[in-house]
Amino acid sequence: MLLVNSIIILGLGIVFVAIGWYLSRTVRTADEFILGTGRLGVAFGAASLLAFWITGNTILAAPEAAFTMGVLGAIGYGFIGAIGVVLFTPLAVRIHEVIPHGRTVGDFYRARYDAKNYTLFLALLLVYVFGILITQGIGGGVILEQIFGIPYHLAVVLSFAIVILYTMLGGFQSVAGVAFFQIILILIAVAGVVPYVFFKVGPSAIYVGIMQRKPEMLNLLLPAGLLFMFGGSVIGIGEVFMDNTFWQRAYAIKRTKLVPAFLISGIGWAFVPVAVSSLAFIALAQGLAPAQVNQVAPMVASKFGGAVAGYLFLVVVWSAILSTAAACLNAFVSLVLNDLIPRVKPGVPEAALKRYGTWLTALVGVIGLLLTLPRFLSMLQMLIFLGVINGAFLFPIMLGLFWRRMSTEGAFWATILATVIGYYVYFTVGPLQAVVASGWVSCLVSVAWSLIKPGDFNWQTLVEAGRRKEG
Amino acid sequence: MALIGEGAFEVVIMTGVVGSSILLILLVGYFIYELKRREVW
C-alpha cells in the first residue's frame, strides 16, 4: 500500500514538473517570472485563483467545521472563503486603475504610504507568506502520513521537491499553468466522489441519522457556528486583501476579464467546501468518530467509496496542498525580487534578476522544507494566528485604495494597535475573537485618525511609481 | 433550535455538488474554447 501511494504521489509530481517545464520555456525576464508572459483570461485567471484558494484546509478543515458545527459550519466555511474573493473584485479593478504598472502588493503599499509603513508591511507580509508555506508543508506531511501511510519526512521531502522544481522552472507562468490542471483534478474528484458516496448512503438516511444522534448539528442558529461564520469572515477578507498571491493575479489577469474571473472563482469556491462537507454529515449520521477530526472526509471517502474513491481523495488533497504551496513560494520570491533586491542592489539586469528568482525559489523552498520537518505547528491554529495580521492591514489597504484622505500616520498606528490588541485578545480571550478585534481596531483607528488629521494623497503618485520601473 | 428541514438540507448539499460540477464544466469548456481560438488544437 505504501509503495502504491508513493508511486501515485511521485507520478503526479512528475506530471506537474513536466507541465511546469513546458510552460517555462518562454520565461526569460524577472517580470515574466513574477507575472507570466501574457495576460490571463477568465479560465486560467479563475483557475489560478481557485487553485491557490482551494487549499488542503478547504478539503480537510471544511468537513471538520461541518463535523463540529453542523450545517452552519459547512455553509460558514463556504462563506468565509468566498466573501474575501468576491469583495476583492472591485479592489482588483481599482488596483488596475490607480497603479496600472504594479506587480505586487508591495508596489502599492510603498507608493501609497511612507517608508515606516512599507517596512512594517513587508516584514509582517513575509512572516505571513512564510507561515502559510510552512503550514501547507506540515499539513500535507501529516495528512499523507496519517491517512495514506507515507512517512511524514518522506511526504514533506517529496512535496517540497516537486513544488520547488516546477516553481523555480518558470515562476508564475508554471505555477498558474500547473494550477489549472490541479484544479481540474480537484473538481473531478469533488464532483465524482462526493455525490457517489452521498447517494450510496442515501440523503434521507443521513438526515434521519443526524436527527437521531446529533440534532443540534442541524441548528441554523448554533452560536458557535454563527461566531465562526462572521468572525471567520474577517480572516477570509483580510487574507485575500493582504496576500500577494491575489495581487499578483489581479495584475496577471486582463483588465477586462477581472470581474468575471474573480466573481467566478469567489462564488465557485464556496461550492467546494459545501460539497466536501457532506462527507462529514455521513460520519455524524453513522456515529463515526475519526482519530483526528480533520481526517473525517478522507475516512468517509475510503470507508463508503472504496479504494478508488480513497485514491481520488488522495489526489485532491495532494493537488490542493501543492498548488497552494507553489503559489505561496512564488509570491514570496516575487516580493523579494520586486521589492527587496532592487533596493539592496540597484541596476540588476532583468535576465540576471530572473536567475536570482530561480535560485531564490530553491533556497526559500529548502528553508521551508527544513522548517517543516520538525512538525512544530498545527495548520488551523497557525492560520487563525496569522489572521490577526491580516485583520490589522485590512483597512489601511482598502481605504488606501479608495480614500484620498486616508492618513499615512493613521495607517501605521492602526496596524500597530490592531496587531498588539489582536494578539492580547488572542492570548486572553480567544483566537477568533482576536481576529475580530484586530479588524475592528484597524477600522476604527484608520477612520478616526483620517477624519481628525486627514491626508491628501495624490493618485498620480501611484501611476508614476509603477511607471518608474519600466524600460 | 431552528433546525433545517430535510429538503433544505439536501438542497444545501446538492448546491455544493452541482456547483462544483458546473465549475468543472465551465473551466474545461473555456479552456477548450481558448485552445480553439488560438488554433492550438
Describe it for me?
- The complex is a heterodimer of chains A (471) and B (41).
- By secondary structure, chain A is mostly helical.
- Chain A has helices spanning 2-24, 30-35, 42-53, 56-98, 105-112, 115-148, 152-170, 172-201, 203-213, 223-242, 244-252, 258-286, 296-344, 350-372, 379-402, 408-428, 431-452, 460-467.
- Chain A has one domain (2-378): Sodium/glucose cotransporter, CATH 1.20.1730.
- The longest helix of chain A has 49 residues, at 296-344.
- The chains are: A mainly alpha (471), B mainly alpha (41).
- Chain A binds chain B through residues 41-44, 46-47, 50, 71, 74-75, 78, 180, 183-184, 187-188, 190-191, 194-195, 198, 203-204, 207, 211, 215-216, 218-221, 264, 268, 270-278, 281, and chain B through 1-4, 6, 9-10, 12-13, 15-24, 26-28, 30-31, 33-34.
Largest sheet of chain B: none
Instruction: Give the domain tally of chain A.
Output: 1
Order of helices and strands of chain B: H
Shape of chain B: rod-shaped
Q: What is the string of helix and strand elements of chain A?
A: HHHHHHHHHHHHHHHHHH
Tell me which CATH architecture of chain A applies here: Up-down Bundle
Identify low-pLDDT runs of chain B: none
Distance from first to last alpha carbon of chain B: 56 Å
Q: Which band does the percent of strand residues of chain A land in?
A: under 5%
Count all strands of chain A and give the number.
Answer: 0
Structural class of chain A: mainly alpha
List the topology elements:
The complex is a heterodimer of chains A (471) and B (41).
Chain A: H1 2-24, H2 30-35, H3 42-53, H4 56-98, H5 105-112, H6 115-148, H7 152-170, H8 172-201, H9 203-213, H10 223-242, H11 244-252, H12 258-286, H13 296-344, H14 350-372, H15 379-402, H16 408-428, H17 431-452, H18 460-467
Helix pairs in contact in A: 1-7, 1-8, 3-8, 3-11, 3-12, 4-10, 4-12, 4-13, 4-15, 5-18, 6-7, 6-13, 6-14, 6-15, 7-8, 7-13, 7-14, 8-12, 8-13, 9-12, 10-15, 10-17, 12-13, 13-14, 15-16, 15-17, 16-17
Chain B: H1 6-37
